[in-house]
Structures are given as C-alpha cells and as structure tokens.
Amino acid sequence: MLVREVCRALVPALGGPDGVLVDATCGLAGHLIALIEAGRPARAFAFDRDPDARALARQRLDAAGAGDVILVDAPFSSMAERLRDDGVARVSAILADLGVSSLQLDRGARGFSWRVDAPLDMRMDPTHGRSAAEILAAIDVGALTRILRELGEEPDAARIATAVVAARPTTTSALAEVVSNAMSAPQRRKIGLRIHPATRTFQALRLYVNDELGELDRLLADAPALLAPGGRLGIISFHSLEDRRVKQRFAALSRPPPVPAHVPMRADELPRAKFALPPEFAKGVTAAPDELADNPRARSARLRVLERIEA
Questions:
Q1: What distance lies between CA 256 and its chain's CA centroid?
Q2: Rounded distance, CA 276 to CA 127, Å?
Q3: Which residues of 228-260 are buried (b: 16+ CB within 10 A; e: fewer)?
Q4: pLDDT digits (tens, 9 = 90+) for 144-159
Q5: Pairwise CA distance, residues 248 & 226, whole Å
Q6: How far apart are CA 269 and CA 112, in angstroms?
C-alpha cells in the first residue's frame, strides 16, 4: 500500500554506504523489499510483534535476496532500545505502516473482522495480553462507552456498550450482531450501506487491545531523535485518530524554537528547527487512482513524512 509513494519519500534518505533502514511494522515485508531494492541500505531492521507476519516476512525476504535483514520480535515502541543493543545510534529512514495488516484481516481466525465468524481475539501478538473476548467478559458499561467513544468515535457508544456488556459476546459474529441490533435508527440511516454498523466498534476494541495509540505516541516521541541529518521518518495512518497525532507532532517538530522575549538577536542567531516537512509531502499523500482501483483498502491511507535537517 502506497509503495511508490513510500519509495519516493524514503529512498532519497538511503544514499551512501552507511544507510540504515528501519521498518517499524514489517507485516509481509512488501514496503521493506521495495525500499531495499530501490535504496540499497547497508543495514535493515524490521520490527513486528505478530509471529505469523514475521514467519511469512522471512520467507519473502529470503526469496528476494534480502535474507540479511534483522527481524525483531518486538513492538515498535522498543525500537530505540533494540537498535542501541545492536550498536545503532542513528538511522537513515524509518517507516511505520499503522493499523491492522492484510494478513490479520484475511486470516479470519485471528478475530479482527466480522466477515468471518471466529473467537474474538484481535491481538497482534496472540501470545501476550488479553484478547478482546477476555476484556469484554470483565468490562463495565462506563469503561466500554469511553473506549467506543474515544477510540471508535462512535456516536451510539452508550447504547452499544450497554448491549455488549449485557450479551458479553465471545465471537466476531456475535459482537457484530449485538452492535447492529443496538445501533439507533438515525445512525443506521446515516451510515447506510457505506460501512458495516460494527466497523467503529471493532476498530475501537482493536486499538484498545493492542494499545495502538500508546504505541504510536511512543514512536512519535522516540523515532525523530534516531534520524541522522537528512534522515526521514514516514508514517502511514488509516484514520483520524492516528493521522491527527502524526500531523500535530510533525508540525511541532518542524517549527523553530520560540525566540526569548526582549532578547536582541541577529538573523543568523535565531533558533532553527531541526526538522522539516518535505514540500511534496507537506500535506500528506494518498493512494493514486490506479492503486485504489486494485486495492480499495488504500482509500483511507495517508503518508506523512518528516526530515531531519539539523544534527
């Protein structure tokens, strides 16, 4: 998804014999392989907490002649620490493709989608943490209402939370049915056939189960400092909760520090920002029409890019 745009954004930062590439969300390694083929980094690291994704990524990397990529079994919130352990202080390019992967959606048994009846799991790493079913078995209406309202931006959060807590569903189909039955008539008319009534509920639970916004906040705090001068950070987001965080953090980093009041300074003494938004990516980029025709899932994807310009 957005492979051409990702290469256009990050390959310029990979020039030279010391280029280090980090894929924070490796998935099936599609972006990573394209970046390696186009940018030829000296070293490449790939993070993913999903064991199924790592296994398939390794097969694809080996087949592409990129078997020397270091695959890391960890969430991207631990990126800075794990890179330090490998003696890497600065990197040339970092990519994070947020959200759920095609592998997780397409394997119905993982419990990410209402399209296939399966146990309600939703964990990106199925060996750690509580599943969505376990959370719903213990949660109260107030807490679930907050999750649906804040993470799913669900207008019917209270109605849906009350119904879900009463039913305590344990499968994807059961949850989708409860949500559909609980949704108010005005909301049902508003969404029409555009989206499934349970879309926002599934999103909210998935974000909560995997602490996805917390992971993103830690990435936004740590990743810019890892960039070498000329290095770039690219983040693909899929909904407003993610994109808003990325946009605001990138904008803040690209502004110069404030000038102390009443302190005379020459122009060459004014503080300068250490980061900038590359002009062609200043407002983010979305999928081209040909990609949208082949992959409708790309319709909500937006790539934003930050570049380090000062040491």
A1: 27
A2: 39
A3: beebbbbbbbbbebbbebbbebbeebbeeeeee
A4: 999 999 999 999 999 9
A5: 19
A6: 53
Structural domains counted in the chain: 2
Confidence at residue 108, expressed as pLDDT on a 0 to 100 scale: 78
Residue 102 lies in a domain: no
CATH number of the structural domain spanning residue 67 = 3.40.50.150
In a domain, 103, yes or no: no
Question: Is the domain of 236 the same as that of 198?
Answer: no
**What are the tokens at 156?**
């019917």
pLDDT of residue 273: 92
Mean pLDDT score of the chain:
94
**Coil/strand/helix, residue 136:** helix
Q: Is the pLDDT of residue 6 over 80?
A: yes
| 218 and 265 assigned to the same domain | yes
C-beta of residue 61 within 8 angstroms of C-beta of residue 69: yes
pLDDT digits (tens, 9 = 90+) for 61-88: 999 999 999 999 999 999 999 999 999 9
3-state secondary structure of 196: coil
pLDDT of residue 269: 62
Domain that holds residue 69: 3-97+212-308
Domain end residue (candidates: 167, 183, 210): 210
Q: Which residues on adjacent β-strands are paired with residue 308?
A: 275
Asked if pLDDT for residue 268 goes beyond 70, the answer is no
Joined together, the tokens standing for residue 101 give: 């992967």
Q: Identity (one letter) of the amino acid at 163?
A: A
| Per-residue pLDDT, 310 | 85
187 with 233, same domain?
A: no
The token pair that represents 23 in the structure block: 């894929």
